[in-house]
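Repro:
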Amino acid sequence: MYFIKIVFWISLFIIIYSYVLYGALVWLLIICRNFFFGKRSKVFNKEFSPTVSLVIATYNEESII
């Protein structure tokens, strides 16, 4: 019976951590980073456009693609 209680509480912690605690931890780390290092400036280079490749695995589909 003791083993079942341990498994239950560990499972419950994993579920709560996934939905609540992970987000709170990330939010807290962002707040700490902004406090110690200041906010980052958002500089966007409008001239930069990355290249994109699309890979499709097909066999004998030249006419359809």
